[in-house]
Structures are given as C-alpha cells and as structure tokens.
Amino acid sequence: MPTKAMPFHQQKQKQVSQGYQSTKHVHQIQSRTSSSKSVKKEQVETTQAMAQPAYKLPAFRERQPEGMQEYQRMASHFGRDLTTLQHELHRMKVATQEQVENIEITREVRERMSVQRRDAPTEIPKGPDFLVGLRSHTVWEKTPVKLLCTVSGYPTPIVKWYKNDAVIDPLSVPGKYKIENKYGVHGLIISRCSVADSGVYSAVAINSQGKVVSRATVCVRRATGPGEISHLPGQVPLLSGIRRSKLEVFLLDSFGVTFGTEGESLTLVANMVVVPDLPNLPPEVMWYRDDTLLKPSRWVEMSVGGGTAKLSLPHLNKDDEGLYTLRIWTKDGTTEHSAYLFVKDAAPTVKGAPGAPMDVTVSDANKDYILVSWKPPNLTSESPITGYFVDRRKSGTSDWVQCNPTPVKVCKFPVQGLTEGASYHFRVRAVNSAGISLPSRMSTGVTAADEESDVQDIFIVTTVIKIEGKYDIVVQKEELQGVCVTLTGPPTDVHASEINQTYIVLSWNPPSPRGQAALWYLIEKSLGDSNFWQRLDTGVQVRSPRCPIFDLEDKKAYRFRVISVNKHGPSEPSEPTALLQKADPYVSIPDIGVPSAPGQVLASRNTKTSAFVHWEPPKNPNNLMGYYVDCSVVGSKIWTPCNHRPYKHTRFVVHGLTPGDTYIFRVQAVNAYGLGEESLESAPLFIDAALTAPSAPYGISLLSCDGSSMTVAWKRPKRTGGSRITSYYLDKREVESVNWKEVSSSPATKRVFKVENLTAGLFYEFKVQAANLAGVGLPSEPSRPFACEAWTMPQPGPAYDLSFWEVRDDSLLLQWKAPVYSGASPVTGYIVEMAQKGSPDFVVVNTEAVNRCYLKVTGLETGTSYVFKVYAVNVSGKGKASDVSEAVCAKTLPGTKEIVSGVDEQTGDIFLSFEAPEVSALSEFIWSKSYKDITDSNRVAVSTVGRCSRLTLLKPEKEDLGIYSVAVTEAGGASASHTLTEEELKKMLELSYNIRNPIVPLKTELNYEILEKGHVRFWVQAQKISSAVSYRFIVNDKEVTGAEGHKISHDVSTGIIQMTVEHFTRANEGTYTLQIHDGKAKSQSSLVLIGDVFKVALKEAEFQRKEHIRKQGPHFSEYLTFHVDDDCTVMLVCKLANVKKDTTFHWFKEDEEIILDVSPNPMSGSCALPIPLFSRKDQGIYKAVLGDDRGKDTSVYDISGQVFEEIINAIARIAGSSASDLMMQCTPEGIRLQCYMKYYTEEMKTSWFHKESKIASSEKMRIGGTSEMAWMQICEPTDREKGHYSIEIHDGKNAHTRTFDLSGQAYTEAYAEFQRLKAAAFAEKNRGRVVGGLPDVVTIMEYKTLSLTCTVWGDPKPEVTWFKNEQEVVSDDHNQISFESGKFASLTIKCVTVDDSGKYSINVRNKYGGEFVEITVSVYKQGEEIPEPKLGQTSRTSAAPKPAAPPSKPQTPTPSMKSPTPTPPQSVKSPTPTPKSPTPPRSTKSPTPPRFMRSPTPTKK
Fold first, then answer.
1. H or E element, residue 878
2. What radius of gyration, in Å, describes the C-alpha atoms of the chain?
3. Mean pLDDT over residues 421-444, rounded?
4. Dihedral sign for Cα atoms in the order 1391, 1396, 1401, 1402
5. Cβ atoms of 903 and 988 closer than 8 Å
C-alpha cells in the first residue's frame, strides 16, 4: 500500500477545535507500515534507534561452534522468504525516489507557509494541554515500545519524561531511550524492552502559563514458549543437554488453563502426532509442576500412547496448583506446552472455617525429633487464623494423633517424643474463630533416626599399627570408646536454631567421645544472668541434639545449658548459651514476623477472561514464601482468591474472570508467620482482550459502477483488536499491474467507498486495511477483478452487508442494506434464499418480496449451519444477488437472555431491559424499532450500565407499539427482540399510574390482638413508611388521641403503626379506622368490631386480664401434661413460676388428696406425679393445686377418652420397642407363646396372628398376660395349629412385631413335652389322697374308744393302710379297720390304754400314687391333767413317691383375668388339737404365682 508524501498543509496539525479524531488520523497515516512503497524518515530514525545495542551480549548467549550447525539449519528454514524480501526491497527503492520528490514539495510548502506566518497575528498565551494523551502499552520482552502524545500551548511547552517519578536521562543508558519531538507530537522510544522496564511513565508539559501531566503504564511480558502464553516467569529448568529422538512430535490440542476443587479428580490431556507412530516406542515425555519434575506416585499418574499424553491427579489438593509443563523429546530437540492449574478450597465442614494448609514438609529428622513446616492458606472473607494443629500417624496404621495440645501460631512445629526407627506421616489443620479446617495432604513418610549415624558409619576414625611392615592392625574409634569411655563429656555449641513467638529450639553437638552406651540429655535454664539453674521438664526423654522449649514467659531472657547422661551417670554441664528470649510479637525484629505489604500493583489486559498483574516486592520480606493475589468486582466489596497456593514471583496472570466486568486487585505476602498486610488496590481494570491491531477486513463487493467510478463495500474485521476501528485504507491496482496504489490520501471512515478516476473498460482489484489505536492491521485478500463498465440494467444492484442477529435454536434474523444501484425504478422488495452450508441448492425463504431490509427466518434445524443471499426487486424484476453470506449455525449462544419489559418501582417509567452475556470495552447497545434506528429522542431514552441496557418510553402511547430490538456490538452477536402489544402496554400503564400516584402499600390491613393484662392492640403494617409519616385513628367517627387510656406510636424500620387500648370494655364496641399520609401517598384501613366479633375480643381481653392477675402470685407456667419414662411409668408433670418457700403444692385425684412418699418441692420449678403400672383403673380427673398468701392456682387434667388412649399408645411404644422375641413354653393344657417386655397391660392394642390370620381369644386359643409379658395359650394343640405365629403391639403410629415359627422339629418337641406334662397332671389329679377329717394331734383318756375317721379319694379307688409307729395295724377286736364305699376310711381303737399312745399314719394309694398322713395319739390316765400339745405340732402330709420325670422348662406366671388358673382346695383342719407330727406339712402351691397388683397412685389420705 503506497503512501505518498503529503504536503505540509495536510500534515500539520489543525487547531484544537479541529478535534481529536483529526489528530488521530494524521498519526495513523504516518504509522502505516504494512505493504507500503515508502519509508518515512521518522520510521527510519526509529528503526536505527531500535537497532542500537542496549547491552553487551553475555558470554553464555554467544553462539558456540557446535551450535553453528543448528544456526545454519534454522537459516535454511527461513531461506524460502528471501525472494519475498528481495521484491520488497525493490519496492522500497521505488518508494524512496517518490519520497525525495515529496520532500521537495514539502520544502516549497514550508516556504510559502513561513510567509503566511509572518503575516499572521501574534498568538494569545495559553497553558499547555494534551490533545492526545499517553496510552498504556503491553509488549513482549525484547520488543520496542513507543509512547506518543500531542501537546498544544503558547509559548510552546517543554516536555520532560519520567519513569516512576524519576527523570529519564537517555545518556545514562545509551541506546535504551530516544526522545523526539515533531510538530507538537512528542515521543519516547524504549528499545529492546525488558521486564525491568515495566512501570508508570509520565510526560510533563511546562510553559510560562502552567504545567500538565499525562501518565501511562508500560507492562513488559515474557513469553513461555510455543504453548499458552501465560506471561509468567520461566519456571521449567533449562535443558542440561540435548537428547536426540528419532521421532517427530507435533502437539495438536493441548490442555488449557484448568480449574479444580480439592477432593476432585482431574486429567490433563495433550493430543499429538508422532511420526513414525510406533506402538512399542512412544515418545519420551516429562511433566513439570513449576520447576519440579513430576514422578508417578499415589497423587500423580502418567501415561503416553495412542497419540495422547495424560497426567492424572486422582485426588486434587492445593499442593497440586501451579504451572504444568509438558516437555516431549523430538527429533529436533524438544517441544513444550504449559498451562496453569488452579485448585480452590473444598467446602469447609464448618461455615467460616479456613482452608486447609498445604505443602507439608519434614526436616531435621533425629532419633525422637522432627521439624514439620507448611504454608498457610489464603484468607479473604474468613476470620484470621489463630493457630495450627499438627497430627502424626505411624506408617501402617490409620489413627492420627494430635501432636500439640494448643494451636501453634507459626507455620512450623518441632515434634518430639517419636519412636526411634519408626516411620511417620504428618498433616496440619488450621484454626480460626469459626472452627477447624479440613486436614492438609499428608507429608511423605520420614523415619525418626539420627541423621548423623550414617555419616559416622562412613567416617569412622581408625588407628593403624604397622607390624614388621607386613601386617596392619586397624583399631576403630568406637572400639576405643567402648573400652575406655564410661562417663561422656558435655555437649558443645549449645545455641538456638529457631526463635519465634511460640517457642525456642535448642541445638547442640553430641559429646565426643560419647561411648557406646545409650545417651540422653537433660536441659537446665536460668533466668537472666543469675546462676540459679532450674531443670526443665521436657515431658519425654530427650535423645536427639534438638529440643523445643515452650512455656517461656514473654519479654524475659534465659540462659540454657545441657547435660549428657548415660547409664554410668551424667556429664558436666555444657557452656551456657547467651541470653535468649521469645520473639516479641509487638516489636519489629529482622526476619521475624509477617512480611510487609507489597508495593504498587499494576493490572493490564491479557485475554477476554484473564488479566496480567504485576507488583513490587515488600520492603521487609522476612523469609518470604510467596504471594496471594485477590480480586474483586468493582462495587461488590467481595474479594475472591485468585491463587490458592503461594506464588513466588511478582508477576501473575489471573484467569477465570468475567468478560465485561471491571476488577480491582490486591496482593498479600506470605511467610511462616502468616499473611502480611494487603497491598493497596490496583486501578480498576475492564476485562477484555489486550489491545492489538485489527485483523484483515474481508468480503469486498462491487455495489455500483458508472464507467469512471466504482462503489465498493467490505465487511468489518472479525477481530477489532480491543479498540474501535477508526479508519480504513483502500488500495487498488489494475489486474495487469503488480503495484498497488492508494485510493485516497485520507482514510475511509465507513465500509462503503466510491473509488473515482477509473478508466472504463479496465479490470480493477481492491484490498483494504483497518486501523485502530494500536495501529494498522493486515490487508485483506485482494478482491476478485471488477470490470469498470457502467451499469445500465433496469434491475437493481445487489444488496450488501448481510448480518445475523437474534440467532436461536430454530430461528434467526437476517438484515441487509439496500442496494446502492436501484436500477430503472425504485426497489419494491427483497427475496431471500438460503442453503445448508456446503450445499449448492438454494431455496426461496419468502415467496413474496418483503419491503423491508430484514427478515425473521424460522423453522431451522438446531445445530445446522446455513448460508443466505438476497435479491432486490423492482418493477423490472429481480436484480443481482448479493454475495453469499457467511455460514451461521442455528444455535442459541450460552447465557443468552431475552428483552424484559417492566415498570420502574421508583419513577413509574415503562422500560425494556436487556442483559448481554458478555461485553467488551467497545460494545454498544443499539436499540431499534421495527429494525430501524430510533431517531426520535423525545419518545425514548437509553441508559447502559455494565452488561445491562434499558430503553425507557418517555411518553408511552399506542404509536409506541411494535417490535423493539437491541444488538450489542463487539459481543459475539448478542441480540434480542420483543414485541410490545397493546394489552401489555395497558397493564404497564396501570402499574405506572399507581406508582406515580402512590398509595401507602400495606402488608396487612387494620387488625387487633389481645396483649398481656387484657390490653388490646390495633395495628397496621405498611411495606414502607418514612419518618415524615402522619396518621390518625378514628373510632366511631371520632378521632382518638394519645390520651384517654390510648397509646399511639409507629416504627419506621418495620412500617408498623399501632394504638393500644389499656381498658377494653363494652364501650369500645364499634368501627376503627386508620388514615395514613406519607408524602404524596395515602392509605386507609378499617376494622369493624361489632356483635359476635366484639364479644370474642372482649372475652379474650378479660381472660388475659385474669391471667395477668393470676400470674402475680404462684402459678403454673406450664399446665399438667404427661410423659412416659423408659420403665413405662406414667408421669404427670407441670412447671411452676413465681413461687417461694412458703408456697404449698398438693395432688388430688377425684378431689381426694394423694400423699406421696416424698413431698413435692415447688422451689424446684416443676413437680411430677408418678403412676406406675398404668391401667384403666387409673382413669380419672387429676388436679394440682399451688398456693400461698399471694393467691392460689389450679391445674386440672382429665385422664380419660383421648388422653387415656395417648398414654396407652406412649406405653405401647416403649414396651413394643423393648419386647423380646416370642418364646415357647409347654404346659399341661397345651403350648404357650409368650413375649416379655418392660410392661404389659391388657389395655394395650395387642394382636396375635396365625398364618396372617388374626386370633381371637377362645377356649382353643386363650390370650392373656401379666405385667411383664403377653402370652397366647394353644389348648390341646393339633397339627392344625402348626405354622407361623406373630404378635403386633400397636402404639398408634407403628406396629412392633415379634414372630415364632411353630412347625417342624419345634412343634414335634413341643407337642411331646405337652403330652408328658399332660400325663403328669392327670396322674397328680387322680392319685390317692386324704381329702380331710383327720386331726393332727389326738388326746384321749384311758379306756375310752378312739375313732380316727377320714375321707379319701382316688381314681381308681385307692387302697388304705394304717400304721402305728411305722408298723402296719392289723384289724382285730382292739383295732377295727373299715373302708366304706371306697370313700370313708376309719380306725377304731376300743378301750385305749397308755400303750396305744404313739404316731399313727394312714397310707392312701392307687396306681397313680398316694399320700401318707400322720396323727399323733396321746392317752392319759384318769385323774391326770390333760397334757397340752407341744408347740409346732401340726399335721404333716407327705406324698407318696412318684416316678422321676425329666426336668421341664421353668413355670411361667399365671394368665390374667381372661383365663384364670383354678387353685386346688385347701385341706380343712380339725378343730381338735393333736400332737405335732414330725412329717413336714404338705404345701399347696398354685402352678403360677398370682399377679402382683399395686395401686397406681400413692396411699390416699
């Protein structure tokens, strides 16, 4: 593109009124360099300045002979461009000749202008002013940068240049800086920029009228390689040598900047092409994190093959954050790719807890001592960290043990008391006021062992003795020590190896000689310079020459000394240390404490989602670990961490930012003591791509030709370079020529240009370049040849500038511009055709021509790409087709939103609003109606804030109805449309009217509530009221004031207006109205309290008044209720209030007082009445009475109906949960299934089931229970009763089920046992026995007749035998024995004598057994006193022996009232006393113990 030397009157700057744009055009014309035929003098001088050496080439940079081969190979690689350079050189020579001619013209113009200046009047003095200020630049390292500004003023200002407020002296660094001034344009050229050249540059313009300053930031970046340009310091170590590979590797798609969260898994993948691709010979791949070469481990997995290289991180942690570099050996050396991985904190277990620490490392390992260190986490919104907990775990175990009882405040901790030879892992947790963080990643394993032991084994001192020159006797030092050394020497060089605010670590050298006995150490301290030594309690035996000392007082200095001890005794103390004390947290000590704040923070654009941040290091680094960078969206006041692992350098690229938002940045320095102060915030930065020259325009088309001129158009560049395109440069050439000529000396500002002075009949080609603030971009591809022939056809020319908006999944809006050439008649419409991308078959979209320059195309397939072309139509027919459009994919952009209509809540304005998914600094919201620019500014107003734009209808009427659309430039085609209908407008007008003619909006209408003491509160809550609100209450058409027993108030914060009536009586019945005035807004609310509604309110008020009076004395704060304890005891409980020592408490049931063993204590605040073994008999009305001299209160509780059911259900819930499994018990009647539980009563809802059929109590199936169990008796079981049995205990909500399977072997054994018990019971029932009639003792006078008669029973009839003194009595005349009717047995002794005295007995027996009964007979002589029977002489019965039976299961309690077990009748004793029988009495027991029934309530008075 040739550029002619312009005359001076065109080059000279115009006056200030000419405007900024004119000045910019002149500068851009001078700066064009691409494809030019002339080289300006200014550019030559600049090039010379840049070519001057800025520094001496270091020796390591000089090319060595062995590198010449590589240099020659690279030179031949670029040889193919020599031909192009030769052609360019030829064109430059031609341009130089033209420039010489232009210089002559310029000189002539200057002479003429000098004459004009002499005639011009003297200029008015004016202060300096920057017409064009300095602009910030971001450049690559080793490239030049030029800062330009234009200054006006009179007298002519003098401009001085500064860097970071220091004057720039070009002579101080020869060749580095060049300062120039041409026609008011001042420039500073910095050649071969380095990172150190980054800073703030200032131009200060001064004259007699004043001084002005213009500033700009220069940011110099360093590229990291052919992969992603991250602008980070080179962190991957340089190659020590080249390892040649026989494979050629080309990286394709590689991993980019990646974001992860702790705990997740992530894989970095790089695709590549390997030539030759050998399955068994993959390329050699190395992965780096920052400057560390990664190796496979439990945290890192690597693989290569199949055209991919993968790095898998199975469990992400913040330790994994950093710059990852993939280095692959190739035939020509290596190929690399780098990208940053960000890992954010996992969600904490406690809200507000800090993130986990990271990079836990161990060092200084000894026998029982290891030093653990780590890095602190970043904090933004969390509270400061107060300390850290260190945990340890022995290898091979899973239990973590906390090492420090209290948090340590620094990021390192000496761990003591370890087991020698054991391997340990460590982890760290951070603590703040909210809680404890998640643990860090555990450290690598470390063994507790003396690190000097291996060295000592290698360097053992030996003694060599020569014998006759032939033999060597070697004696090791350890052997000498073992023989000679018993007591060791004192340790040496005792000093503090670590001093901080928490502890001091003492270190020393072991004694020498030390001997072979086990060695440990004792430590003593002395306060100040005193010689009073106190031995420290270290808690564990110190075996390593390291020991941390805790619990030292602040601001006090100590001396320490160490004593070595072995089994032979202690050594002498070591030399004491100098005075040592803990670091004072409030005193600045070098290398102790957090680092100071970093210096100035500079931020500049990088990409659409990232920014480059640079800062100055802190003045006091204090062993700096790195930096944390935070960012915040301007106005949000919420800071977000940009990195989660300390970064070592002062330059960082922040990724993951939102395009179109404005951010500020801050930096914190980090060391072992924590996070330092934040730096000052950076200047706000709008996130967009870095400023570059625009890409090439494209799509040059011919719109019209009249034979001597052509009208051409083109499409704007796809990439504007982050700055608005200000001009276009159009070149032309004839098809047969190779030289391009500039079409016009002034650039075009629009994309349609009329090229004049053409020759008819020739063919011309055109190309275009776009320019912005960054410079002139690349030229477009040459257009196709256009013939310069006048258009005379009657049809119109082509439409042009086809564009797509509102692209959705199934539709889009196509827009175009009307043709420049309309033909013989005006254009009447347009026809649109479309085709799928790649298809030559176009179809007509609209069969009838549309008379507008847009068309909504619908019915598209989602994800399909289409192309379009447009025909203009007039009376003569269809004209030329437009150029085929670019392909467009029918798919909704992510984040796309539609236009929203609404009404402003404050002003009542009707608006249409649109939010773009992303915007750039150049984006504009272009609103249109019916897809035509809105020109009537009296009807609408447009406002834009960030990504949102609002179109406000100033005078909404029917003529405002229609289609409104918005398009956002430089935003990837973001656009939308909305049809405003009459119905929608009507609704918004009504809402707008309500807002502009406001009422006080009420959340609630006028309402009332009854307060304590019986006061009644009338209140209204408004959504919002101001402090100037006024109101009045009207009751029955009469305004109520604050007096008269009424309290009226309001609360602005809550919007509540209220009136309290203190004495609410029958006189208060009526209508209540509240009228509110708040500015222009009004509102009114009424409440009618008449009739039944008033009666309800009055009754409640009286109740609350009585309640208030009741509460003045002792009262129940909670009335009687119940709960059931775990042992199923029902407790009636109540809570008391306002009691004192004299307060009494009494329980009543049915008005009868209940006396408890322990009197209730009202002072405890609660009382309880236990009701054990609750059942139906405990129903009734219970009452608790509380009283003293201040009054009395009563609580009544009716346990019946629903309350009784609830109590039973509560008991069933506990009993059912405690129920045991069903157990089987065999009885003579049958088989019994029983379930033990904490408590059982028949009122509980209990159901028995057999094979899912419910069992009802019957003679066959008897159901019952005791207080401890429920049972079900199967009488006379048969095979029909086999099967699955279950019991369900219902508690009102759930059923508690227990089961038993009575079948198979279980049934067989149970049935056999039942038969056995049944037979035993039958035998017991039918055996022979004495039913009654015999006395225990008989006393009779001599010579009388004694008759012993009794009734016996047995089936079959028993045999009866009488005995005297264990000898059988034979019936004779003296002793007559009779047994009548098998029922009555008698022994009659006639004429008894003293010899007849003795022990008589009767034995009644049949085949089932019998019974033996004894009677004592005493005969006394006539005249003697009747002897008294001795105490204890009772009748004894003894059962006849029965055959032994196998032991049976323990007997169970008797059934309940449903199925009582009969008890055998007791023997009737004879009233006549008889001598005592030596036989023990017969005991008659019930087969089951009777149920113990206790009263559920205490003894009644």
1. strand 877-881
2. 55
3. 93
4. negative
5. yes
pLDDT at 112: 62
Residue 216 is encoded by which pair of tokens? Answer: 């700009």
Task: Report which of 127, 149, 171 is spatially closest to residue 20, judged by C-alpha positions.
Answer: 149
Q: For residue range 1289-1317, list pLDDT tens digits in order.
A: 999 889 999 999 999 998 998 999 988 99
Residue 673's region, left for phi above 0, alpha for psi from -120 to 50, else beta, is alpha
- Predicted local confidence at residue 243, as pLDDT: 57
Q: Is 117 exposed, middle or buried (0-12, 13-18, 19+ CB in 10 A)?
A: exposed
CA gap 701, 1057 in Å, rounded: 73
Four-CA torsion 1074, 1080, 1081, 1084, nearest 10 degrees? 30
Strand 1223-1226 and strand 1166-1171: the pairing is unpaired
Does the pTM exceed 0.70? no
For the record, the structure tokens of 905 come out as 């809540």
Q: Give φ, ψ of 995 to 5 degrees.
A: -75, -40
The first and second tokens of residue 593, run together, are 């404490």
One-character DSSP codes across 163-219: ETTEE--TTTSTTTEEEEEETTEEEEEE-S--GGG-EEEEEEEEETTEEEEEEEEEE
Q: Which residues does residue 831 pair with via DSSP β-bridges, in sequence order?
A: 871
- Cα 1210 to Cα 506, 1182, 1183, 1207, 1387, distances in angstroms: 67, 19, 21, 5, 66
Start-to-end C-alpha separation, the chain: 124
**CA-based nearest residue to 949, from 985, 994, 900:** 900
Please name the amino acid found at residue 1168.
A
Please state, in angstroms and rounded to a whole number, the distance separating the CA atoms of residues 627 and 623.
12
CA gap 1116, 1192 in Å, rounded: 10
Which two tokens mark 1304?
């198979």
* CA-closest candidate to residue 1271, choices 1318, 1230, 1223, 1317: 1223
Write out pLDDT tens, residues 724-738: 888 999 999 998 888
Rounded to 5 degrees, φ, ψ at 1154 are -105, 125
Whether the CB-CB separation of 1241 and 1278 falls below 8 Å is answered with no
Residue 415: which of 320, 316, 547 has the closest Cα?
547
Render 1448-1464 in DSSP notation, one character per residue: -PPP-PPP-TTSPPP-P
- The number of beta carbons lying within 10 Å of the beta carbon of residue 1148 is 18
Task: Decide the pairing of beta strands 333-344 and 258-261.
Answer: parallel
Taking the CA atoms of 1145, 1149, 1155 and 1156 in sequence, report the sign of the dihedral they define: negative
Q: Alpha-carbon distance 94 to 91, whole Å?
A: 5
According to DSSP H, which parts of 886-1004 are helical?
Answer: 982-996
Instruction: State both tokens at 1214.
Output: 């506990």
Q: Compare 235 and 505 and report the one with higher pLDDT.
A: 505
Q: Alpha-carbon distance 1316 to 1307, whole Å? A: 14
Q: What is the mean pLDDT of residues 1372-1401?
A: 89
The pair of three-digit structure tokens given for residue 1116, joined into one six-digit string: 């129940």
1476, pLDDT greater than 80: no
Q: Extract the tokens encoding 427.
A: 């982890």
Mean pLDDT of the 393-399 span: 90
Alpha carbons 130 and 133: distance in angstroms, whole number: 6
Question: Position 273: which residue type?
Answer: V
Q: Greater confidence, 1336 or 1459? A: 1336
Nearest to 539 by CA among 531, 550, 528: 550
**Considering only CA atoms, which of 205, 379, 232, 353 is closest in space to residue 291?**
232
Residues with Cβ within 8 Å of 1417's Cβ and at least 6 positions away in sequence, in order, are 1338, 1340, 1346, 1348, 1392, 1396, 1397, 1398, 1399, 1400, 1474, 1475
What's phi and psi for 74, nearest 5 deg?
A: -65, -35
**Helical (H) or strand (E) element with 45:** helix 41-51
Cα gap 402→388, rounded to integer Å: 11
Cis geometry, peptide bond prior to residue 1356 (ω within 30 degrees of 0) = yes
The closest of 1327, 1334, 1399 to 1363, measured between CA atoms, is 1399
